[in-house]
Amino acid sequence: MKKKTMAMMMAASFLGAGGCSAENMTTQKVSAEPDKILIAYYSWSGNTRFAAEQIQKLTGGRLFEIKPVKAYPSDYSACVDQAKQECRQEFKPELAVKAEEFAKYDVIFVGTPNWWSTMAPPVRSFLSAYDFSGKTVIPFVTHGGGGMADCERDMRKACPKAAFGKGGAFSGGSIRNAADALEKWVNEVVTIRK
Ligand SMILES: Cc1cc2nc3c(=O)[nH]c(=O)nc-3n(C[C@H](O)[C@H](O)[C@H](O)COP(=O)(O)O)c2cc1C
Prior knowledge:
CATH superfamily: Flavodoxin domain
Number of domains: 1
CATH class: Alpha Beta
Order of helices and strands: HEEHEHEHEHEEHE
Number of strands: 8
Distance between the termini: 45 Å
Strand content: 15-25%
Oligomer: single chain
Number of helices: 6
Bound molecules: flavin mononucleotide
């Protein structure tokens, strides 16, 4: 636990908790029917999954877990080391599952843990695996103190054909008590058409 906290503090302090530099390019609130909404996420230790499940309940959209063929080590330090290399190299691991009927979705919430201030590599793979033309991506991030950092900026770079909604960043450690914050943000980014 101590090691983990230290690593997080290190990452958060030297990489900073900066916001999105391309905020002026953010799409205004979108409106969509539940069956046009996909909530895709990668989660290593469950926080981003929890956020994704809340977003699914709030929107009625379809949940999709992004899974690499080769899972990351369950050992925290080994995972941090591997992630460091992969994030630096913008590595895109092969994914195990394809999202069905991807073309039918208009709004895609894309969730990632903050890994070394950017998205987790499987999310980078996801963003380059599909045609995002005409779609709106709404990023959401859980973190260990570093906030959004470069996650949203890097997601935009990795997915240039999509429009982007306003990203949400939530503390992973308190995500299970963040129902109100999640709901407030979801209401800011999407209107559900029934
Ligand atoms: C490999 C790795 C790298 C991480 N790097 C950062 C970081 O740079 N900044 C930060 O705030 N949190 C960092 N964290 C903490 C996670 O972002 C945070 O615990 C998140 O909520 C985990 O989401 P998950 O449970 O969905 O995997 C890192 C965690 C791991 C495993």
